[in-house]
Amino acid sequence: MSLDKDQVQHIAMLARLRLADEEFTETVDKLSRIVDFVDQLAALPTDDVMPMAHPLNQAQRLRADAVTEADDRDHIQQNAPSVADGLYLVPKVID
Amino acid sequence: MELHAQTLTDLQAGLERGDFSSVEITQALLDRIAKFDTDLNAFITVTSERALAAAKRADEVRSSGDNGVLCGLPIVHKDIFCTRDVTTTCGSRMLENFVSPYDATVVERFADAGAVVLGKTNMDEFAMGSSNETSFFGPVKNPWNLECSPGGSSGGSATAVAARLAPAATGTDTGGSIRQPAALTNTIGIKPTYGRVSRYGMIAFASSLDQAGVITRSAADAALLLGVMAGFDSRDSTSIDHPVPDYVAGLNGSLDGLRVGIVRQHFDEGLDAACADAVRESLGVLEAQGATLSEVDLPNLDYCVPTYYVVAPAECSSNLSRFDGVRFGHRAADPKDLLDLYCRSRGEGFGAEVKRRIMTGTYVLSAGYYDAYYLKAQKVRQLICQDFKRAFADVDVIAGPTTPTPAFKLGDKTDDPITMYLNDIYTIGANLAGLPAMSVPCGIIDGLPIGLHMVGPHWAEETLLCTAHQFARQTDWHMRSPEAYR
Questions:
Q1: What is the pLDDT of residues A15-52, one digit of tens each?
Q2: pLDDT at B145
Q3: Which residues of chain B have a CB within 8 Å of the CB of A55?
Q4: Do A40 and B380 touch (CB under 8 A)?
Q5: Rounded distance, CA B176 to CA B186, Å?
Q6: Which end of chain B has fewer CB atoms surrounding its CB within 10 Å, N or C?
Q7: How many Cβ atoms sit within 10 Å of the Cβ of residue B242?
Q8: What pLDDT sits at residue B83?
């Protein structure tokens, strides 16, 4: 097993994912198998190779920093689980 | 020929002649969906009323003579494309009730061309899967054998087209998600060059790999639709400004002198023997039309799948961080604090495979592992891309099998993620290198179809479509349909 329970717990926390107890054992097993599988990349020498971020090796196109969208807040917030006065509501963060 | 059995091109001609109306086509297909989809589960949402209203408008517009290229023609959209006023679930509980405030560019372009949308198709959750079994809305069945998977992630789209519930469907392809289901359902699937079709409003899985395409029953239909979808869009920063040729006009080119590359490793162990024979026979068909076959080497081929399973999860973990239970999507009940809100909303909203991919991505991007995994994979990706570049100096198309086997049984590969991942072994390279690729029906083995896979250099969609069209003129595989759905 390349990953142990504590590591998986840490990854789940970094990813902000609560795993149910019954999911947890299976996740440790399957994540370990995935990590073992991708570990084979280490065998390939890549010292002088440029990492590739874009499949056509293109740079991200830039545009003028101008407002192009109209205000559509009410429409957009129809998808929000909890709003008031145009603001998104979450549990209290600061006392 | 009955309306449901006709291709888009047939229907277009029929509408033009006045043989039938768009309302008649739409009603006939909606009736079929109502009859068959309880078993097939190809649709997440059927938009009957909207479709009939759009068809009625199309018929009116047509009689006035001012109509778009797809006026009154039915299509279905994979439920990954945002549609204003209709839910867009991406196959996830997370977005079960999500109604996008805007249309994806692909959706908009089809609407502007006059297409009639019948509904939104089922898919693996967030397009992460190769069997449609990760959908929150249940697996899609393969119309060739209901015990089998139609492949994924665009399995609903493929099944809808194969079962004659719609003549054409949109799909997306991050590692084979258009081509693999096309192969397993005897349909045609094309994934264009990265940047060819706008990703605006297409829910992101892995942004450097995702590309939209179509699933159809003829190369001519794929050419017709690609012409509508393709082209620059300023709202997608990865869209590339490159001229869009007339794909339909390009279909009638000759294969005489076409240089077809064959990769020896494609025929190594792992490929079903009957599949290998069918693919070799298909290559013979191309040769008989004047194509020349030669061997090409892709030395880093074996590294494609592991590279993908670092890059794609990394990008997915970043893209899916937007689902936080605050602005849209599933929110857990009674969160005790903000952290609990995030963790439980995401834990409940995402299914097991999506969680695994997010966690794999989180791991390979985390402090101490970034260089060993993510940076390493980006370097290997460069090598894979260079392999293709070298190969395309000598050949116009690389051809081989789309999948190692015909459709597998539902439940067969869900225990081991690696077994499932390896199903995309022949298709993933095209995504890593951003190349256009296509799957074309090329055989039926024990009642289950398989596909011939073709990859071209960047922007070679025309060559692929022409080759597929000419191949289909010499074979009748694409005409075969599952018996219960003729």
A1: 999 999 889 999 999 999 999 999 999 999 999 999 99
A2: 98
A3: 194, 208-209, 385, 431-434
A4: no
A5: 15
A6: N
A7: 15
A8: 98
From chain A, the residues in CB contact with B209 under 8 A are 55
Query: Does some domain include residue A17?
Result: yes
Q: How many domains does chain B have?
A: 1
Letter for the amino acid at A86? G
Q: Write down the residue that tokens 């299976």 correspond to.
A: A26
Look up the CATH number of the domain holding residue B31: 3.90.1300.10
**Whole-angstrom Cα distance, residue B89 to residue B203?**
10
In terms of residue numbers, what domain contains A32? Answer: 5-42
Would the pLDDT of A85 be above 90?
yes
**Could you tell me which residues are beta bridge partners of residue B173?**
B211
Q: What was the pLDDT predicted at B63? A: 85
For chain B, say whether A53 makes contact (Cβ under 8 Å): yes
User: CB of B437 within 8 A of CB of B209?
Assistant: no
Burial B398-434 (b: 16+ CB within 10 A, else e): bbbbbbbbbbbebeebbeebbebbbbbbbbbbbbbbb
List, in sequence order, every beta strand (DSSP E) within B29-109.
Answer: 43-46, 74-78
CA dist B156 and B40 (Å) reads: 8
Which residues are bridge partners to B444 per DSSP? B449
Check residue B318 and give its pLDDT.
98
CB contact under 8 A, B341 and A18: no
Residue A56's pLDDT is what? Answer: 84
Task: Tell whether A95 is covered by a domain.
Answer: no
Q: Mean pLDDT for each 10-residue chunk of chain B (486 residues)?
A: 96 96 98 98 98 97 87 98 97 98 97 97 97 97 98 98 98 98 98 98 97 98 98 94 96 97 92 96 98 97 96 98 97 96 98 97 96 97 97 98 97 89 94 98 98 98 98 96 95
Q: Which of A3, A49, A79 sits opposite B383 (nearest CB)?
A: A49
Closest CA to B165 of B217, B127, B110, B113: B217
Residue of B nearest to A32 (CA): B360
* Residues of B involved in catalysis: 78, 153, 177
Count of structural domains, chain A: 1
